[in-house]
Amino acid sequence: MSRVRFPRRFDAVLIRNQRVSPWRRVYAGVTAVFLITMVGTLGYVVLGLTPFDSLYQTIITITTVGFSEIGGREIDTHYRVWSLFLVVVGTLSALYTVSVFVEAVIEDNLNDRIRRRRMRTRIEELSDHVVVAGWGRVGQAIGMFVRRMGHEVVVIDSDPDVDSSGFLRVEGHATEDSILMAAGIRSAHSLIAALPNDPDNLYVTLSARALCPDLYIVARTSHLRNEAKFTQAGANRVVNPHQIGGSRMGAVAMQPHVAEFFDEVLHDDEHDVAVIEFTVPAASRARGMQVGELSHPGDERALVVALRKDGRVDYLPNPDPNVVLSAGDVIIAVGSAVQLKALGRMIGDIEAAAEIQLGHMDETFE
Length: 366
Description:
Oligomer: single chain
Number of strands: 10
Radius of gyration: 31 Å
Number of domains: 3
Helix content: 40-55%
Strand content: 5-15%
Largest sheet: 6 strands, parallel
CATH architecture of the largest domain: 3-Layer(aba) Sandwich
CATH class of the largest domain: Alpha Beta
């Protein structure tokens, strides 16, 4: 059964791109030194030195090199007072910049190690999560939808600068077995290969299937002619985003109200309604019941809109109320959280039914 869990606080956020960078203090220090150098140079120019001599005198003063002062008649009380000012202010700024630079290097390296260690520990504790290989626009859309459905998401991407805030992440190439293992593929609910090119997605599919024979794999393809190859490689489902996007745009143009309804049901978590799939377990008390006993149009129960009998590949839309349910049947139902929970309990998966909570998701991350 597909489990929906709303709302949920995702306290596994271990990579925060919005975290205050220790390098900001370094930038501030460098800026201060630059401004003091410019002001010091201007001051010496006012005191009578040439622009180059002024810059030279400012730098040796700030860095306390110890060379003799430049200037002859220009060296007077005002000259020495200005030099003392630069020695105090400039030297302190330079020392601050050096100290925060060393601190930033150590802190950044230490924080990175801590984050990576915490991430590895958190991923090792995960189960029933979804691994998304590729964090482009398609991968990000997948991650947001899967997270809205209540599953943890582990991202695999080789780009160190990609913004994966709010998600666990493994940096590396998803085509490598070690990276897939680091993402916890053996305990994952499913893997979605969303890399931008077919060869990489095909390789990820092959590797994942070899590592986990029972893993549910969804692969992205850019060409319809490659779907058979992905299936042979072990993908359970093959999706062409371009085809789906084109079909959806056509549906919006030709049947805008139908498209809007399904958008609200499938993608809008502001509404207390969703389409959920249930699988009838072997020990379910719904075995032997008729579809009509599960729901009736107009009552307060979830509406069964489709049924797939065990062992068949096609669905029965709006199934006959007299169809008898058996173990392994897949039921597609639409309804509110209360209605779906009731249907889940009737089918027999009480734990899963208790986790169905529709509504606005809490976007606050720990």
